[in-house]
């Protein structure tokens, strides 16, 4: 059998197999090595021999990147790159790729699913119906007509904009906070651009769609919850640490806000006795907002293609760190 031209380390994945990746990368003579576990020690050792690294949720730390001395590209299966030591990769000449638009439909649908589940009290009524209680039952949280309610979107990027459009179709008025977009963008989307305190105090629903970085870590904490309506519902399908979790628990306990819908939490796999798991006014899904049969296949194929592109000296579809270009290990055209 011929020696593979490239070795591609897959640190972790949350789908049945890497067959679609193998098909794409096989065309350029690349072999896939699946890490047996995503610990830093394992990845550091396997990275030594890797020409490329593809990663989903595993931490590709500074130590892992430094040990990857032959590595020509780190490709993120996904949107956020907060699990990759991007600055280190840039300084060492390693391009980092990502797929920022593969699940905009799924995540924005998921936000609407959480919002609608709360607005129609689906969890509560599902429970009582199955207990045979069909008459005279009213949910502790009253049913409010959605049309005319206000949704505050924090971060008007790809997903935030998609959520805004879907919410408008349900008759919600949309406020947005995003210090990095021009007013004309939001006006075009029929959205009122406001500052964060205004968004928090006026919204019936608040949904977070910023990246996780030093500026947004803990963006929503005790002060922010105090500004919100006691009837407000907060949704986080972005990254857990953007919300200060102990402050959220307190706000929910003290009735500063009414409920929360979370697809992400501070820890990737929170302990079973986490206080949020015991709360009736919290809906939680285990980081699956991106998931659909179509989105995952698209993610696998496009991440593999981006990896193959860089290995062969082509510019990938989406590059995270253009600052790498003048000194990248492989010249990209
Ligand atoms: P994006 O880059 O298209 O948009 C992010 C927006 O946030 C930008 O408009 C930016 O200007 C804005 N922003 C940055 N800093 C801000 C701040 N301090 N305050 C307010 N706005 C700020 O990203 P996206 O594709 O819309 O993704 C949004 C989030 O969703 C990311 O955190 C991503 O990791 C997460 N995500 C989660 C899932 C999931 O399965 N739960 C899937 C995909 C993406």
Question: What's the gist of this structure?
Answer:
The protein has 333 residues and is of the alpha/beta class. 34% of the residues lie in helices and 14% in strands. It has two domains: 6-101 and 293-327, 3-Layer(aba) Sandwich (Rossmann fold); 104-284, NAD(P)-binding Rossmann-like Domain (Rossmann fold).
Please describe what this structure looks like:
- The structure is a single chain.
- The chain has 333 residues and is an alpha/beta fold.
- It has two domains: 6-101 and 293-327, NAD(P)-binding Rossmann-like Domain (Rossmann fold), CATH 3.40.50; 104-284, NAD(P)-binding Rossmann-like Domain (Rossmann fold).
- It is 34% helix and 14% strand.
- It has twelve helices and twelve strands.
- It has a seven-stranded parallel beta sheet, with helices on both faces.
- Helix 1 packs parallel to helix 12 (293-311).
- The longest helix is centred in the last third of the chain and has 19 residues, at 293-311.
- The radius of gyration is 22 Å and the shape is elongated.
- The model has no long low-confidence stretch (mean pLDDT 96).
- Nicotinamide-adenine-dinucleotide (NAD) is lined by residues 79-80, 100, 103, 107, 154-160, 177-181, 209-212, 215-216, 237-239, 263-264, 287, 289-290.
